[in-house]
């Protein structure tokens, strides 16, 4: 089990960007430089934009990197991360760890399982970095591989640049992918009300939120062993069952929870049912030879005791004093109750 603890940072409203744009390319790459120059021409038509074409080393050496907007064109010919050397790794690390706005452009080759996984490295890395820094605007843009389409690619990059730069982090998409010359996002608009309504209609088990005291009868179950958050309260449909002649019905007031219960839920021991002592009030008693009556205060140990109501053999119930609280009664060791009765 892993726990991630982080400090929340308020998302401040973004102002119009200073638009110090750095187009990052590899030295000696004709395709990257050609696309960078076309993007620079398009950006030149945008007001208040200062655009430079730089190498990855120059971008990593720039001061105040958090004030720049980086458009990285390093992956328009082939996967970059797979084949980068130690120097490229160090430069890329400096940029990713200090910049606040990045647009990573990828041009995918023809689909294959190998190339797809190579290109997905940066997408996965971007998702991790966004989790580490909630203010980081790291946009992934994946274009299709086409011939002689530099101008159209530059226009698409400019369009995504404007959408993501001039909107706040909460109001822009973070991943774009081109399919059949159309840009797609990786999700639809999330409509919670519709999700809840559809789930309620098709779900075999109906879920609703009610106050615990308003329910008629509930019991606790372990939906999935090994998961602590899989504990669920469900309706106890057997609470009105007919009692046998030797049985009594109990209203559970307090239960004792110990470390063994945690081990059972986490599947660390060979058990699947919670068990321990609990304290109750007698609610129903069949007429037979015993000294128990309705409203008697009792305690008992049994399996599956996390219920509002339960029932058991009357001989396995111990009557407790009115001076003893239910909390105190749950701590009584009654493992040998049957032995005590026999003696």
Summarize the structure.
The chain is 29% helix and 25% strand. With 343 residues, it is an alpha/beta fold. The radius of gyration is 33 Å and the shape is elongated.
Please tell me about this protein's structure.
The chain folds into two domains: 166 residues, Rossmann fold (3-Layer(aba) Sandwich); 130 residues, Medium-chain alcohol dehydrogenases, catalytic domain (Quinone Oxidoreductase, Chain A, domain 1). Helix 1 packs across helix 5. The longest helix has 20 residues. It is elongated and about 95 Å long. Helix 1 links the parallel strand 1 and strand 2. The C terminus is likely disordered. The chain is built from nine helices and 14 strands. The two termini are 47 Å apart. With 343 residues, it is an alpha/beta fold.
The CATH architecture category of the largest domain equals 3-Layer(aba) Sandwich
**CATH C-level class of the largest domain:** Alpha Beta
Q: How many separate helices?
A: 9
**Helix content class:** 25-40%
Number of domains: 2
Q: How far apart, in Å, are the first and last alpha carbons? A: 47 Å
Count the strands? 14
Poorly predicted ranges: 8-17, 336-343
What is the molecular shape? elongated
Residue-averaged pLDDT? 77
Order of strands in the sheet with the most strands? 2-1-3-4-5-6-7
CATH topology of the largest domain: Rossmann fold
Strand coverage percent = 25-35%
Radius of gyration, in Å, reads 33 Å
